[in-house]
Amino acid sequence: MHDVDVVIVGAGAAGLSLARRITGPAPGRDGGLSVALVDAPAGPLRPPARTWCFWEESGGEYDDLLAASWDRLRVTAPDGMAVTARPAPLRYKMILSTHFEEHTGALLHRSGCRRYEAVVDRVRDLPGGGAEVRGRDGAGAEFGLRARWAFDSRPRRPGPARTTLLQHFRGWFVRTERPCFDPGVADLMDFRTPQPARGLSFGYVLPLGPREALVEYTEFSPAVLGTAAYERALRHYTGDVLGLGPFRVTAAEQGVIPMTDARFPRRTGRAVFPIGAAGGATRPSTGYTFAAAQRHTRAIADALARGRTPLVAGPHPPRARLMDAVLLRALDTGRIDGGAFFSGLFRDVPPHRLLRFLDGGTRWWEDVLIGFRTPVGPMLRTVLELPSIPRRPPLPEEHHRHAL
């Protein structure tokens, strides 16, 4: 069994980002840390290629890897009324997971990070201090590592929650015969889709050029659909709503993201810490994860560089988590209409402030101002009843691998 300073389980966005930050140069670091990164062998446990989206100012650390970015965002209400906003100085950005993995993998190779492939079934504290990772490699042989600190990004079943919805989607990368898209505008939510009995649905369009785009059908609802149902919804949206005309599908992505007000632990042992979606990086009200995972791994790497225990603040502040709990409950009970709610926010709130709010970066008085732009009565009723609602364990179908 090998010994290292840090072992990271899972080579998704969070695992790769943390490994890169630990092995890269850092002020205050007294010598280098030995790092091992363990990824699942090729197969069902390794997530498929996917897109990661987030917003930030130009000049970000991953700008060289962007597949595209947009300076204007559009939200279309159920009645077809569209609001197009320019959230300057923020831009909406998209990274392909394959590009991120290739770039970060090359950096880690040069840094001396040890890479392993194994199916990990146990990450736990050791009696004398530190942690161990155990599992089996691709050939079925026993695999083990010991480390001072372990960071685990494997999907985990959310804990008891008052509300759990699923954000589930299927997207097509399309190429049309004629120019159909404005490359400068991203459609975040287009509510001109048939709405489910419980929850909401919308279209999502990220243009990559005048004739190319990622077009997705997304639902926030209690249960996923079959692939055939997503395909029908996409045919309706691309044909009847967008009127794209003839096109071909060059690739597809599909995923499910739990939207829950469950509590995510900051540590699962004295030397074991969850990261990524497993560590609560997914924003319950939106499903976005990438930007929060970057903040979280940056804080962990900084603590390690300073020789401290890497127990840092969670990816989202408590006030943001409380507001998310209220929104999820209001959506799930049907007290608010999801399409009207989100399109109203984009219509009435300055776009840069709204995006900072969705990322948990607003101050309390800004949150109050935004709250007055929501249906105050239903939201206040939900706030008052929330403490009396018991948390319950999620149903089996409410736990899915994070795929965005």
Could you characterize the architecture of this molecule?
This protein has 404 residues and is an alpha/beta fold. The protein has a domain at 2-48 and 96-158 and 262-305: FAD/NAD(P)-binding domain. 27% of the residues lie in helices and 31% in strands. The protein contains nine helices and 16 strands. It has a seven-stranded mixed beta sheet with strand order 6-5-12-13-14-11-15, with helices on both faces. Strand 9 and strand 10 (142-152) form a beta hairpin. The model is unreliable at 398-404 (pLDDT under 50).
Biggest pleated-sheet summary = 7 strands, mixed
Order of helices and strands: EHEEEEEEHEEEEEEEHEEHHHHHH
Give the C-level CATH assignment of one domain: Alpha Beta
Give the strand content.
25-35%
CATH topology of one domain: FAD/NAD(P)-binding domain
First-residue to last-residue Cα separation: 34 Å
Please specify the SSE layout and strand pairing.
Layout: E1 2-9, H1 13-23, E2 35-39, E3 51-57, E4 66-70, E5 72-76, E6 82-85, E7 90-96, H2 97-111, E8 114-125, E9 131-137, E10 142-152, E11 164-176, E12 185-190, E13 200-209, E14 212-221, H3 227-241, E15 247-260, E16 272-274, H4 290-305, H5 318-333, H6 338-348, H7 351-358, H8 364-371, H9 376-385
Parallel strand pairs: 1-2, 1-10, 2-8, 5-12, 10-16
Antiparallel strand pairs: 3-7, 4-7, 5-6, 8-9, 9-10, 11-14, 11-15, 12-13, 13-14
